[in-house]
Amino acid sequence: MIIANENFGKLASSYLFSEIGKRVNEFKNENPDAKIIRMGIGDVTLPLPKACIEAMHKAVDEMGSASTFRGYGPERGYDFLIRKICDYDYRRHGIKIDTDEVFISDGAKSDTGNITDILGHDCIVAVTDPVYPVYVDTNIMAGRKEGIVYLPCTAENNFVPELPVGDVDVIYLCFPNNPTGTTLTHDQLKKFVDYAIEHKSLILFDAAYEAFISSEDVPHSIYEISGAKSVAIEFRSYSKTAGFTGTRCSYTVVPKECIGYGLDGKEYSFNELWNRRQCTKFNGTPYIVQRAAEAIYSESGREQVRQIIDYYKTNATIIRNALISKGYTGVYGGVDSPYVWVKTPEGTDSWGFFDYLLKEKAIVSTPGAGFGSSGEGYIRLTAFNTTENTVEAMNRI
Amino acid sequence: MIIANENFGKLASSYLFSEIGKRVNEFKNENPDAKIIRMGIGDVTLPLPKACIEAMHKAVDEMGSASTFRGYGPERGYDFLIRKICDYDYRRHGIKIDTDEVFISDGAKSDTGNITDILGHDCIVAVTDPVYPVYVDTNIMAGRKEGIVYLPCTAENNFVPELPVGDVDVIYLCFPNNPTGTTLTHDQLKKFVDYAIEHKSLILFDAAYEAFISSEDVPHSIYEISGAKSVAIEFRSYSKTAGFTGTRCSYTVVPKECIGYGLDGKEYSFNELWNRRQCTKFNGTPYIVQRAAEAIYSESGREQVRQIIDYYKTNATIIRNALISKGYTGVYGGVDSPYVWVKTPEGTDSWGFFDYLLKEKAIVSTPGAGFGSSGEGYIRLTAFNTTENTVEAMNRI
User: Sign of the CA dihedral A111, A239, A220, A314?
Assistant: First the structure.
């Protein structure tokens, strides 16, 4: 008899965005003329950079001719893209990453989800609270529900999680953070790296929002911290950087010195394990998509990406400044991030404030409670909209 | 202390194609002028159909304009593609598959690999021998090494596996088969469906080579067999059909009546489990790639794909007929498949015959032993080459 993976039964219902959709639809039906401004879901709105479009047209033509056609590519990605990553994203920031430490994939969600494949079954896993639900759900699917430790991030600790009490084996960190938009300084992140070195833990560092960093003291990569290569895997994405949410390309860095252990203390190279995992369960990212990603690093591509990021950052600043000037006392994020995290007014909870913004102002937000219990009492607003709509939304509040 | 997934240590080294590469390189160095014909790796050589190229150019342009740009798509795939699949691949063959039973992905390797996520830990898994290594390796990674049952497929049983003895929970079947190129008739496949119904087992049916079927009595889909929807998940791919090995698109059908069980007998819908798995660990196939796949179903696309398949099938026929006419007594496959499976001459084993073909004839094959112990004494030749090269290779033998 085929036994299903019963751990799926332990997952919380994934109702956040469907519940938002339901409430928005109800409002729309009752108010067909309302001009709704969507600041809820974290999806980009600007088109792909011109450099990427040109590179894809060229690559598509290559696929149409026998002499330039590409079949199976390397599972870990083409060298032409990996070399650009090592050079622009690391070497120019003083970090040495070898080409065989980079793995191109179809998305940070896939990689942060699939990474559990290379971890032992009984690991204790720490996540921040609020948290990107993928970290939690994938570990529950893998049978680790009882082994998840939550590290609260609230206004009280300035959204800087405390170090775990006692031993944890895996720590997921996403900074700049989704959903709060807050960051860690070099020294704050160093405490986690030092903890991981001391406890032989593994840090899974999700840097999907790295491109939005402008503050001086905020590390772009965890490998800026001395010793991090032996204890950290880093995830990067082109989704929010260059608008690749529907084009799908990201990469993961697994340094060769990053090791795990057997129950008997034997050492395992996570680089080798992840390579074997990817070669067995993945067949590479589309050639044309990798060419598009490569174009991000061209001179024109870099300039176009800078403009895209600036556009969203301007929106984030508009949201942040408007809320502060209107007397909201708890306004976080929005400086090194496209997300602004807002304390709900006295006497309302996440869903209550969500409903107020929707029904009174025709603005869609995301209730913070959907990201974990410490998200209660907050909402998330995103900068992924036109500046015109962003300004109008703020005028309405 | 971070414990690694020690099951990776139980995997056999993945040396088949690297060992082939090493021997080919040695031969090349010693014989720089030899014109090597590669009939080893199963990668396509013809460019993408024109209809796909046109569709991709159009989709790339859409991604370059704010008014037509697409961000996150549905994790399970766009409706425009799913509707074509339900209509052309199923309804027109008399099979009813609903749109919410189809999941678009980036490859059959990903899906046949990731499907273990929804299976219970202690399943007994049956695979044919020889076998596509992904089925075995992904189950070893998931900790099922001791629970794998091998069903030999050899000339003695005409490459039709016997039913498992006793209870097995999961049965992987790939027909037309990789690597042997052989098929099951309707009645032969029905025996497995009946077994699965009787034992409440699950069949994972890999139909990646379906487009090559021309024999009347060979089912294109396992759902042609009555009752199969309650016990079978089917994997399809555009890789070999339309040359998508480097473009990456496939789909998996999980019927709503296909159920698994809890240890207490509780029923789980595999459709719901797979949907949750994909929504959590996958973010959809690139929009432009799904548009390319949709174009396969247009009138011109269907005609262009037919020509591609005919071209490879002609090559397969050339290989098959040439070997038979030259007195090879064991020549299998190559009728409903791009693969020809050849018994090695008396006194040579797989690697011995591989070396003979390489060194004496400058032809690259794949040693059958690389696919499992029952593959010893065979080599695989593929039709993915130009007809000119195929003819020349056969003249050399």
Answer: negative
- β-bridge pairing B378-382 and B366-367: antiparallel
What is the mean pLDDT of the segment spanning B314-327? 97
Q: Are the C-beta atoms of B56 and A35 separated by less than 8 Å?
A: no
Q: Which residue of A has its CA nearest to B202?
A: A2
Contact A263 B169 (CB under 8 A): no
Is A64's Cβ below 8 Å from some Cβ in B?
Answer: yes
Eight-class DSSP state of A3: B
Quote the percentage of chain B above a pLDDT of 90. Answer: 96
Q: Which residues in B lie closer than 8 A to residue A47 (C-beta atoms)?
A: 63-66, 69
Q: How far is B321 from chain A (nearest CA, A)?
A: 27
User: Phi/psi of residue B152, each to 5°?
Assistant: -65, 140
The count of other CB atoms within 10 Å of the CB of residue A4 is 24
**A49 to chain B, closest Cα gap in Å:** 7
pLDDT band for A14, please (50, 70, 90 cuts): confident
Residues A130-158 have pLDDT tens digits of 999 999 999 999 999 888 999 999 999 99
Match 């007594």 to its residue by tokens: B329
**CA separation for the pair B122, B42 (Å, rounded):** 33
B245/A contact by beta carbon, under 8 A: yes
- Residue B17 in this model has a pLDDT that exceeds 90: no
A3 contacts B263? CB cut-off 8 A:
yes
CA distance B198 to chain A (A): 9
- pLDDT tens column, A305-326: 999 999 999 999 999 999 999 9
As a whole number of angstroms, the distance between CA B282 and CA A234 comes to 18
**Complex ipTM tops 0.95:** yes
Contact between chains at A122 and B43 (C-beta distance less than 8 A): no
In this structure, what token pair is assigned to residue B148? 């794998």
Scan for tokens 């031993």, then name that residue: A167
Rounded to whole angstroms, the Cα distance separating B18 from A279 reads 13
Could you tell me which chain A residue has the CA closest to the CA of B230? A2
Alpha carbons B98 and B229: distance in angstroms, whole number: 12
CA nearest to A108, candidates A73, A132, A84, A144: A132
Task: Tell me the two tokens of residue A28.
Answer: 């729309």
Nearest to B383 by CA among B328, B308, B329: B308
Report CB contact under 8 Å: B283, A107.
Answer: yes
The whole-angstrom separation of Cα B373 and Cα B150 is 10
pTM for this model (two decimals) = 0.97
Which whole-number Å values give the CA distances from B312 to B44, B243, B248, in the listed order?
Answer: 9, 11, 20
User: B262 and A10 in contact (C-beta within 8 Å)?
Assistant: no
Q: How far is CA B185 from CA A62, B218, B222, B241, in A?
A: 39, 5, 11, 21
Residues of A in Cβ contact (< 8 Å) with B65: 47
**Which of A141, A202, A279 faces B117 most closely, judged by CB atoms?**
A141
Percent of chain A with pLDDT over 90: 96
Gap between the Cα atoms of B364 and B386, Å rounded: 14
Instruction: Determine how β-strand B148-152 pairs with β-strand B125-129.
Output: parallel
Q: Decide if B8 and A118 are in contact by the 8 Å CB cutoff.
A: yes
Residue type, position A389, single letter: N
* Nearest CA among A170, A163, A172 for reference residue A195: A163
In this predicted model, what pLDDT tens digit does every residue of A45-93 receive, in sequence order?
999 999 999 999 999 999 999 999 999 999 999 999 999 999 999 999 9
At residue A174, the 3 state secondary structure works out as strand
C-beta neighbour count of A32 within 10 angstroms = 7
